[in-house]
Design a protein that fits this description.
By secondary structure, this protein is mainly beta. It has one domain. It is built from 1 helix and 7 strands. The radius of gyration is 16 Å and the shape is elongated.
């Protein structure tokens, strides 16, 4: 997961329709910039556009089962779709 905020601006990220090395290249609607996770780096790097060579920070995340997560984080909540 990556932050959507850079220099006080909030970006709306979406898939650009492009891939590189089997990874999606993201696009932000506000500046029409392209973003990619460069190998060996932390965060999401702007590879073309207004924020070229700048990064969106990467948040820690975990890939786990819900039952494991809720056992370790009982205060967690989720949105249930009808």
């Amino acid at each position: 997961m990556y932050s959507r905020e850079i220099q006080g601006d909030l970006l709306t990220l979406s898939a650009s329709g492009w891939t590189y090395r089997n990874t999606f290249v993201l696009y932000d609607y506000e500046t029409e910039s392209l973003w990619y996770h460069l190998e060996g780096t932390d965060g999401l790097t702007c590879i073309s556009g207004t924020y070229a060579d700048q990064k969106l920070i990467e948040y820690a995340s975990a890939f786990t089962r819900w039952s494991t997560w809720v056992a370790e984080h009982p205060e967690s909540k989720f949105l249930k779709y009808p």
